[in-house]
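Escalation from tier 1.

The customer reports that the assembly of two entities below gives different structure tokens on two consecutive runs. Tier 1 could not reproduce it. I'm attaching the input and our single run for tier 2 to review.
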Amino acid sequence: MGHFFSYIVEPGLLSSGPVRTAILVGTVVAVTSGVVGVLTVIRGQSFAGHALADVATTGGAGAFLAGLDQFWGFLIAGVAGAAIMELIGVQRRRGRDVATGVVLGAALGAAALFLYLGTQTSSTTGASFTILFGSMFVISPDTVPALIASGVLALAVIAVLSRVLLLTSLNPELAAARGVPVRAVGIAYLAALAVAVSLSAVVIGAVLSTALLIGPAATSLRITKRPGLAMLASALTGTAAIWLGILLAYDSYYWPPHGHGWSVSFFVVALVVVGYLLSFVRRPRRRDRRAQVAAKAQEEAPACSPA
Amino acid sequence: MFSGLMLNTWIAATIVAVIAGVLGFFAVLRGQSFAAHAIPNGAFAGAAGAGLLGLNVIWGLAVFAVGGALGIAALARRARQDVATALMLVLMLGTGALFVSFSTEYAEVTYSLLFGEVYGVGDNMLLPIAALGVVSVAVIALMFRPLLLASTLPEIADARGVSTRRMELCFLIVMALATSMTVPVVGALLMFALMIGPAAAARSFTKRPGRAIALAIGIALATVWIGIAVSYHTNWPLGFFVGVIAAGFFLLGQAWSAIRRRWSPPRPAPAVSGVAVTELDVPGSSAHMAGYAYPAGVSRGARAIIGCTFRCYTPRKYTQSGNRPLAPGAGCNGISGYR
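Tier 1 run:
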């Protein structure tokens, strides 16, 4: 049995420092993204989530240029991007995706400039790749406390605002009538989203952080309609995807092509998407059963009217 | 500035701007900015894969762009559109990350595909780009009116026998094909900025579809031309200038509509404010014949678009049948009856 286990988990996985950091930070990220992601899917703001990740890329590139740690660049640019989107009309459902798109376009242009200037001033060209696609195994241990703290902060914001957020997500008019400051709540939510996204940008890369944000949340919302349960399921799904992804990436050093590991980001994304597709498999059967029950009920009481 | 390879750059950028203006108008109208971002961006994975296999980059781009479009359309049938788009995008990007990590020259390849190689357009690239540009604009022109109807009033399009699903699929595939040709030139990120910014700006200047498309093309051309000129002199990447100038045009458009909203005298309230849109649509109904009787929430621009599509989609014999009023609540039946 022990031999079999060591065949699946390559020896030395849990004793390697970078892997331990990756697992710790990955879990924080998966939980934060999972919880924030459920609200993102309910609010229909996947595009904003993805755009904030790309805006964060700009910050990462700028931080690289300024010699700061990437995470601060991600965070500052993400929160600033969220504020600008809110300012130019992301709160209106009609103009929302255009406002998001315009901010995204401008930010990407700036990213192009920063990366270009970065390659001019230093000889390393790998920076753009790390910023865009991330690398979980090169997180510096110094930033870990900051990563965890900001994850907890985002979760706290969501926890405090959860009821109000759900109300404004599902029925903004009703929320406004009840005296909820819809716009302020929206800004707080976008800030939490920016934090979650910059966290996962560090871990699996700005471009792929959307996977952790949307994938587990969409999967869990297909399984259950209850928001609290969905948040729990989504956090668990995301964590599972991260852990399995790390495991597979660690093992993949022994896969072809030899001497070259597959990227963690790929495994995490693939697992998340497979999980989402699996949630479709269960669906029709359940609906059939429900339809059968309904048909049966109708047969038994044909003339009975609900009134 | 206009010699040798630079001339190729100007020509290629001009063609790309025209394609982006036309496709961008519909992307903005349909609220599919996310798909406009996802398809070019995800297609980059195909380029990385083709590079790994030693194939021509174009084939990789085409396969992944069209595959992504089909995937978005297929998933969107069963889930929310933005979720479907997000997941297709990350799937393609994750695959791209894998491909890129296998290749040895990854950083340069990634950078050039995401941000473009507009200053290295060879003579052999111009003809395919031009041909594809003509094809995609022609396809959009062919399906212009049904696409417009399906984009503005999907339920009514369905009721009239225009399949919104098929329209969406066609539109996404055209976008994918155009993308696969333009991404090597201007890059995935630039293509997106050029599609959304100018089209969104154009829509705040005019609400008429034809004029808005023309204006979107014009703004896209101005954006890319100014961008190339400035980029040529400063030596900074074109993507930066295009992104910033497009955003500037968008803000200009926002300011223009804000000014017009403030200064224009308040319009009299519509005579019949509670009419359902389904009823308006029914040709011959009193609400439809009386052009002013749109619901209060329908803006003038939406009315122009609705009117434009109806004129084409209403068979003549029905528009001339007089003001036949509908029974209350008969909207849906009325539509299918008139099909």
